[in-house]
Every structure is written in structure tokens, then in C-alpha cells.
């Protein structure tokens, strides 16, 4: 991720009022951009990390969340550079709170869950593929 792809992702996500970034790590540009756009942003990581002002943070392994609480109740759950082994657990969390799950991969990983794909960026900006999980019961074929 870089600042140009961060801006493309922020443009796509900024229609949501409440968002949760899973695995924020040291890539805080999207969360910061969403806070600047007026969104309520929460973030998790398995390690304590510094987050931009205005982002609510919790040290948490989302694969172990049995009962989502108010912190998890958002419109969109998103993850950047999300590894395949986390796609299903995060999608399940999003589904339990009625949220959309959007994510990017490391670039060479294929999604491990049914998704819709959208290319963001282009022109002078680098492209990034944003995946949106489709419901388990959705009979549509995921676009490849």
C-alpha cells in the first residue's frame, strides 16, 4: 500500500459511517483518511500499535471473537494486505454484525471466500484490487 492506493481505498470506503480495520499494523493511512472524512473508525491488531488521533484501538485477535460487542458493530469491516487464512474469520465477524467485509490481499494471494472484485486507481495512480465478500448463501458466482 502507498499513499496513492490509500486515497483510492478511502474514496471507496468513505460512504460508511462506522468502520473497523482489522490488522492495522503500521499502515495507518486509510484509517487516518477516513477519520479526516468524518467517519467513526475503530481498529484492531494482535499487537499494541500507534494509531492516528480519532481512531479507537483494541489489541485483539479477531479469530477469537465469539461474541461481538459494540466496538465491532460497524457498517464496514476492512483489512489491508489480508492473508487468506483470515478471510473466512473476518467475513464471519462482519456477517455477525451485519457489516460489509472489504479487503485487499498481498497482491499474489487469491481470496479464499466468494467475492466481488473492483479495480481501484488507474491513470497515474497505481491500481489495487478491492475484494468485497459475498454472503455465504449468495448463489452468484464470485467474479474472477
How does this model look, in words?
By secondary structure, the protein is an alpha/beta fold. Helices cover 23% and strands 28% of the residues. It is built from 3 helices and 7 strands.
Question: In summary, what is this structure?
Answer:
The chain has 144 residues and is of the alpha/beta class.
Record the SSE blueprint:
Blueprint: H1 3-13, E1 18-22, H2 29-36, E2 40-45, E3 55-59, E4 76-79, H3 84-97, E5 100-103, E6 115-122, E7 125-133
Parallel strand pairs: 1-2, 1-4, 2-3, 4-5
Antiparallel strand pairs: 5-7, 6-7
Helix pairs in contact: 1-2
Principal-axis shape: globular
Q: Helix fraction?
A: 10-25%
In total, the number of strands is 7
- Specify the oligomeric state: single chain
Sheet with the most strands, sense and barrel status = 7 strands, mixed
What percentage of amino acids are in beta strands? 25-35%
How many H/I helices?
A: 3
Low-confidence stretches: 139-144
Mean of residue pLDDT values: 91
The largest sheet has its strands arranged as 3-2-1-4-5-7-6
Rg calculated over all Cα atoms: 14 Å
**SSE pattern, N- to C-terminal:** HEHEEEHEEE
First-last Cα distance: 22 Å
Which structural class best describes the helix and strand composition? alpha/beta
Which properties best describe this structure?
144 residues, alpha/beta, 7-stranded mixed beta sheet, 3 helices, 23% helix, disordered C terminus
Amino acid at each position: 500500500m502507498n499513499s496513492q492506493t490509500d486515497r483510492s481505498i478511502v474514496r471507496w470506503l468513505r460512504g460508511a459511517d462506522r468502520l473497523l480495520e482489522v490488522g492495522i499494523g503500521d499502515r495507518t493511512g486509510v484509517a487516518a483518511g477516513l477519520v479526516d472524512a468524518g467517519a467513526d473508525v475503530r481498529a484492531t491488531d494482535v499487537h499494541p500499535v500507534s494509531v492516528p488521533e480519532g481512531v479507537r484501538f483494541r489489541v485483539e485477535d479477531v479469530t477469537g471473537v465469539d461474541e461481538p460487542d459494540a466496538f465491532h458493530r460497524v457498517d464496514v469491516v476492512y483489512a489491508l494486505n489480508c492473508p487468506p487464512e483470515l478471510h473466512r474469520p473476518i467475513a464471519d465477524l462482519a456477517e455477525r454484525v451485519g457489516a460489509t467485509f472489504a479487503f485487499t490481499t498481498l497482491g499474489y494471494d487469491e481470496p479464499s471466500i466468494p467475492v466481488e472484485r473492483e479495480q481501484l486507481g488507474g491513470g497515474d495512480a497505481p491500481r489495487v484490487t478491492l475484494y468485497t465478500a459475498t454472503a455465504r448463501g449468495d448463489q452468484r458466482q464470485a467474479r474472477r
